[in-house]
Design goal:
Blueprint (H helix, E strand, L loop, with lengths): L1 H17 L11 H11 L1 E5 L8 H11 L4 E4 L4 H10 L8 E5 H9 L3 E2 L21 E13 L22 E4 L5 H12 L9 H12 L3 E5 L4 H5 L5 E5 H9 L7 E4 L5 E11 L5 H12 L1 H8 L4 E2 L8 H6 L6 E3 L2 H20 L2
Parallel strand pairs: 1-2, 1-3, 6-7, 6-8, 10-12
Antiparallel strand pairs: 3-10, 4-10, 5-8, 5-9, 5-10, 5-11
Helix pairs in contact: 2-10, 4-5, 6-7, 6-13, 7-13
């Protein structure tokens, strides 16, 4: 009787496995990986707060496709995630960790993440991944002009436009000494004014000129999104996704224009990793593959962040909101991290000494 029962259970498991998800496989080996992940039963995803970057929709779609794997997540913040991984290094609690790519470099240096090359890894630009796969970019946040069209008649289209006297006392951006976004703005300004990742001085010179013109209202130490929504800021040099969120979700509608400057701008990578010796390695890999498929990448775009994988077809409504922007250039986070002290000192000298 026992052998018959075992056989029946095995047959049921086989039948269940054969119909694990609807439709064709998203990639070779998906079924086998799901079988292993279902045995583990869950995936623990650190720092994927559901209101950020459309993670809630990713969770829902993952659970629908893989009902045998529970999703557990938290929302710690990039730096705090690395601290948590290091504290639990001997008994890891997480399977994956998401963060600004600068924190991903820290995690790799602290040896708390493992090599893994997911679906579409080979398509990523070199600055968007660790060569071994200890981290890889899943979406970007991009420097753009967020313009309140109730306050600004002529919407600027370029870095050069912002220097026009018509924008006197109109511009706000984040202080690069205390914010990551401010640092990215410096690189965006450099790329748009003849500089490069190795030469940010044109960006410093440009921002100094912008302040000298009287067009900068102020620099700030925290994101001024709420003030922008209230109509207190004419032009905010910030991240594209904030502008699109204001336009399509937070009520501003046509009162906001979102412009990627036509010369060039910076695409800041947000990355994810497989945690070293995580409790559910197969489930972790299943989750990472899922968000890196073309379908998973397109789902990020529904949250107004641009997919990291080139050439992903976006839903029509999203494509209209985020038209192609070939002038976006990937930020090399290793170089950005190394150059931060230089940028802090140069910006303070050029801007604050005026």
């Amino acid at each position: 009787m026992k052998s018959l029962a075992v056989t029946a259970v095995a047959a049921f498991a086989l039948a269940t496995s054969a119909h694990a998800f609807d439709g064709a496989p998203l990639y070779d080996g998906e079924q086998s990986l799901y079988d292993q992940a279902a045995e583990e039963g869950m995936v623990v995803s650190f720092d994927t707060g559901p209101t950020w970057a459309n993670w809630a929709a990713q969770f829902k779609a993952f659970k629908e496709r893989y009902p045998g794997v529970e999703m557990v997540y938290n929302d710690l913040g990039s730096a705090a995630t690395v601290v948590a991984l290091e504290k639990a290094k001997n008994r890891p609690q997480a399977d994956t960790a998401y963060y600004f790519a600068g924190s991903a470099l820290d995690a790799a240096e602290k040896d708390v993440v493992a090599p893994f090359q997911p679906v579409n890894f080979d398509k990523l630009p070199e600055p968007f991944k660790d060569p071994e796969g200890k981290w890889f970019t899943i979406h970007t946040l991009n420097v753009a002009f967020l313009v309140n069209t109730n306050l600004v008649e002529d919407v600027p289209q370029s870095w050069a436009d912002l220097l026009d006297e018509k924008y006197k006392n109109s511009i706000v951006y984040l202080d690069p000494r205390s914010t990551g976004q401010g640092q990215v703005v410096v690189f965006g300004a450099a790329l748009g004014n003849g500089g490069s990742m190795d030469d940010v001085q044109p960006g410093i010179d440009y921002l100094a000129k912008l302040h000298e013109s009287g067009n900068v209202m102020r620099t700030v130490g925290t994101t001024p999104y709420a003030q922008f929504l209230k109509g207190e800021i004419p032009i905010y040099i910030g991240y594209e996704n904030d502008g699109l969120k204001a336009k399509y979700k937070d009520g501003m509608g046509d009162a906001v224009a979102v412009v990627i400057p036509e010369e060039a701008s910076a695409a800041a990578p947000y990355a994810i990793s497989l945690v070293k010796d995580g409790p559910n390695p197969a489930a972790g890999k299943l989750w990472l593959n899922f968000i890196m498929t073309d379908e998973g990448q397109a789902r990020f775009a529904d949250g107004y962040v641009r997919p990291s994988v080139p050439g992903v077809t976006l839903p029509e409504s999203v494509a209209e909101a985020m038209p192609a922007a070939p002038q976006l250039q990937p930020l090399d986070v290793a170089k950005a991290k190394a150059m931060k002290p230089e940028i802090d000192a140069a910006w303070a000298k050029a801007v604050l000494a005026q």
